[in-house]
Amino acid sequence: MKLEAGRVAVVTGAGSGIGFALAERFAKAGMQVALADIDAVALASAADRIGTVDTLAVRTDVSDAASVQALAAATTERFGAVHIVCNNAGVMSSGDAWFGPLSAWTWVMGVNFWGVVHGVRAFLPTMALQPDGGHFVNTASIAGLLPGFGAVYDASKHAVVAMSEDLYTNMQGAGLPVGVSVLCPGWVRTSILDAERNWPDQLGEKPPPGLGNDIVIGHVRRVIDEGTPPAVIADMVADAVEAERFWVLPHPDFNDLAVQRWHDIAEGVNPRRDMQVPGLPSIEEIAAEVRAAMFPEAD
Questions:
Q1: Cβ distance 293 to 215 under 8 Å?
Q2: Active site residue 153
């Protein structure tokens, strides 16, 4: 699909990070842009910063189907069409997946997985009936191809990859003019580690960090701060949309690990504990840091 003036893009999670970069990239192409985010302050700031094209800012809770339907209605009412929908909003919880409260699962799956489902279901009817069709971009993660980044987050992103593949083949099989891309980045310079600032009140108290998670998060924060600028990712997404390409894999060093995992699966090899994630210490090194923090040597 050509990115050009007269076309309309919708981006969730547009208040910062990859979402803002996508909105800005579409705006630079002359497209009209609907920005959505749960953070009203960040959303307003993002809309002001773009400001060079016709924009619409709609506070949206992607975990709520009615909220996303309202976003779709507001977009079509304002612009009359929708050509690109980026289901990009995402969160990560530091809570313990197995011993902590279930609310961590509810929140992360609600945003990361159900947010994509709601986005597709809200916008697909319009896009499928348009003569020039449309294109979905669903933001997953390399964690959607390679576990090891936290059970809750990994599960949500694996689900996004799987449903995106099914959506792609469904659209192809039905002969509908709707393309699909799935974005699976590694380390990108975003504020996802601070996502719990938007923890929903209705889920009760925010879960405490799981055992050792503060140490792990410290390492992850470093590599994220050193990661790929979101604008670079947005350019890759734009290229994929124009080329009608499904996979958007910005970090080949992670791809090698995913390939090794699938070789292991084919050979029946049990999951490895020694996976070396690019940029991070080994699992053994992190475990040693956790033990040292828990049981410091006596002076």
A1: yes
A2: yes
Residue type, 257: L
Q: What is the CATH number of the domain that holds 84?
A: 3.40.50.720
In whole angstroms, give the CA distance from residue 93 to residue 142: 17
Owner of token pair 């800012």: 57
Whether residue 213 lies inside any domain: the answer is yes
| 4, two tokens | 């050009």
Q: N- to C-terminal Cα distance for the chain?
A: 65
pTM of the model: 0.95
Domains of the chain: total:
1
Model confidence over 122-167: pLDDT tens digits?
A: 999 999 999 999 999 999 999 999 998 999 999 999 999 999 999 9
Residue 139 CA to residue 90 CA, distance in Å, equals 8
Q: Parallel, antiparallel, or unpaired for β 134-139 and 178-183? A: parallel
3-state secondary structure of 35: strand
Of these residues, 153, 168, 187, 254, which one is catalytic? 153
Please check the confidence at residue 77 and state whether its pLDDT lies above 70.
yes
